[in-house]
Amino acid sequence: MAVSVQPSRVWRYRWRRSDVDQALAGYLFILPALVELFVFLLGPIVYAFVVSFKHFSYLDPLDAHFIGLTNYIHLFQDPVFLRALWNTTVYALVVVPVQTALALFLAVVVNRIRGKTVFRVIYYLPSITSTVGVAVIFGFLFQPNGLLNRLLFLTLHIQGPDYFNSPVFALPAIMVVAIWTTAGQFMIIYLAALQDIPTELYEAAAIDGAQGWQTLLSVTVPMLKRTTFLVMVLGMIGAFQVFDLVYVISGNSSLPQQDTMTVVLDLFEKGFRTMQMGYASAMGFVLFAIILLLTLIQQLFLGREDS
């Protein structure tokens, strides 16, 4: 006697098998990316975290041994690291607000004029210019006989300093270069957000009598709150991770390196010049903790949606 199978059960079985096959195919497609993620990103992070609790040097890896929290404790007793942390904090406190305000100003101006594409390209060019090239250009501008000092002498009869070799002006000069190179990048983000603000809000504000600065402060800035959070977080991360610009400028400076030392530059010196890889790994995770804490604080003030 033949056994009859209900069509609904057959359809359900085929549907489930098809669903599994599709999921399997999807996982197979993303498998190379997952392998790359675990091997080249998550794996080194876990390894570096383990190494941060060891006395470890690639010059003598067999001598590596566990030392607990010694690397982390020594960090906050190391005058070079503390000076680097202070320089980096001052750098971030100046660069992030200034570049954010400048990016917003440029975006508002460009959004109101014709030829937006041309200005986008002009303002974005510094962001994609080689750091070495930027350092060389500003090195000529900030020389004792450079363009900036000549302008100061011609207009105010002031003889300016040798900026990159001055313990007072070296870090501020680097800040100026950093702001010039990053403001255009964040301007693009603000410009995209400005074009998403409904025109009805500006029309309503105009009916209520708002003009100029009132419209900017009561409509534009509140509507850009989430974008400002994104810009400030990205700017803060970039500021605390500053390396290439300081490395290039410090390499051509006669200053003691502590005057322009940053955390990542100190990490590079410890990890790849003195080969204290365990100590450098601990430094990296302390920097990560600082960035995470500051991001959460910014999330608290800027990241929440208004009810």
Model description:
It is found in: Cell membrane. Keywords: Cell membrane, Membrane, Transmembrane, Transmembrane helix, Transport. It is a multi-pass membrane protein. Belongs to the binding-protein-dependent transport system permease family. The chain crosses the membrane at residues 24-50, 90-110, 122-142, 169-193, 229-249, 277-297. By secondary structure, this protein is mainly alpha-helical. The protein has two domains: 7-51; 73-303, MetI-like fold. The chain contains 13 helices and two strands; from the N terminus they run H-E-E-H-H-H-H-H-H-H-H-H-H-H-H. It has helices at residues 7-51, 70-75, 79-111, 116-128, 131-141, 147-156, 170-194, 199-207, 213-223, 225-240, 244-251, 263-273, 277-303; strands at 54-55, 65-66. The protein has a two-stranded antiparallel ribbon with strand order 1-2. Helix 3 runs parallel beside helix 7 (170-194), helix 7 runs antiparallel to helix 10 (225-240) and helix 10 (225-240) runs antiparallel to helix 13. The protein is globular. It starts with 6 loop residues before the first helix and ends with a helix.
